[in-house]
């Protein structure tokens, strides 16, 4: 699924979240961030806001765009795990974000572990031979 959103002076953030009861794995990949028509020649800083392993909110800047020197940034499918918020931390935009969302359905697969490796199975392996000297 394709993802796209625009951050502006009036809409400074966009949150991507999935249904908490959904039993699938979700990957969100950010491919490109760019300034669009109407952008001023100012620094536009885009942050990704998520949660760390201690469930604390963290914000990481991923792009600093300026019309005259870097209006576009390719993020090479920067992968994130929802929920995630994209926030325009500085500037007035408009900044367009593009990427994709992949849903991987979990399958109920039972793995049978074979802990009963007998000595007979080990004896079937060929013995390790020393290297021949020339």
Automatic annotation (TrEMBL):
GO terms for biological process, alphabetical: chromatin remodeling
Descriptive protein name: Nucleoplasmin-3
Family, per entry: Belongs to the nucleoplasmin family.
SUPFAM superfamilies: Nucleoplasmin-like core domain
A GO CC annotation given for this chain: nucleolus
A Pfam family recorded for this sequence: Nucleoplasmin
Top-level taxon of origin: Eukaryota
Membrane spanning stretches: none
Keyword Magnesium: no
Primary residence: nucleus
Protein localization: Nucleus, Nucleolus
Keyword Chaperone appears in the UniProt entry: yes
Residue ranges annotated for the Nucleoplasmin core domain, each copy included: 3-102
InterPro entries: Nucleoplasmin, Nucleoplasmin_core_dom, Nucleoplasmin_core_dom_sf
Keyword vocabulary terms for this entry: Acetylation, Chaperone, Methylation, Nucleus, Phosphoprotein
Gene designation: Npm3
